[in-house]
Design brief:
By secondary structure, the chain is α+β, with helices and mostly antiparallel strands. It has two domains: 30 residues, no CATH class; 172 residues, L,D-transpeptidase catalytic domain-like, CATH 2.40.440.10. The protein is 15% helix and 36% strand. A hairpin with a 2-residue loop joins strand 11 and strand 12. 30% of the residues are buried.
Length: 204
């Protein structure tokens, strides 16, 4: 009877936290509902169309990196935000297309809410139709950087790569970008709240 009471209490805690436990990880329920975000209203994401492994969840994660570190596993299409106690928040991501992948260590130099997107010159050369955005594409629901962007720098300065949101939630889990790491908008908002400027970023 005592064991049953403990089980019920634990289930209640998980429910209050908005999580459900599956196979050693905790899916974050209601993570992808519509929400007001400043001047914009983020539309809901149809969770049933997102593979479970790409939904935001808390997982066991063995690493020597300190809490607050961001580790990007481009092969598995997962981004981990390291927590205390051998845990991490895991997000599904979209990564670089063939020929645009990269690896290394960087840091979050600064963060922006609803950023302006400015395509780099090489991208405009490949896609001349983007020349109209040479001076920057204003923020908004169709902006390729989505609701948030974390700007990655290393010892040489700006890497040109970002951790950013995307309105194209269906692209998560794919090789789709020019090297940037994209997350669903609701996920980049969550990561933005957790990650501090100066945070170490490891791309595997």
């Amino acid at each position: 009877m005592r064991g049953l009471r403990i089980f019920i209490a634990a289930a209640a805690v998980l429910a209050l936290a908005g999580c459900s436990t599956t196979g050693g990880s905790s899916l974050m329920l209601n993570a992808y509902t519509a929400k007001s975000d400043g001047a914009y209203n983020l539309p809901a994401i149809p969770v049933s169309k997102i593979k479970k492994q790409f939904r935001r969840q808390i997982v066991s994660y063995d690493t020597r990196e300190k809490p607050g570190t961001i580790i990007v596993d481009t092969g598995a299409k997962h981004l981990y935000f390291v927590l205390d106690g051998g845990k991490a928040v895991r997000y599904g991501i979209g990564v670089g297309r063939e020929g645009f992948t990269w690896s290394g260590t960087a840091r979050v130099a600064f963060k922006r809410e609803w950023p302006t997107w400015t395509p780099p010159a090489p991208m405009i050369q490949r896609q001349p139709e983007l020349a109209k955005y040479r001076g920057g594409m204003k923020p908004g629901l169709t902006n390729p950087l989505g609701a948030r962007a974390l700007y990655l720098y290393n010892k040489r300065g700006d890497t040109g790569y970002r951790l950013h949101g995307t309105p194209e939630w269906w692209s998560i889990g794919g090789n789709v970008s020019s090297g940037c790491i994209r997350l669903m908008n609701q996920d980049i908002v969550d990561l933005y709240e957790r990650a501090e400027p100066g945070a170490k970023v490891i791309v595997l």
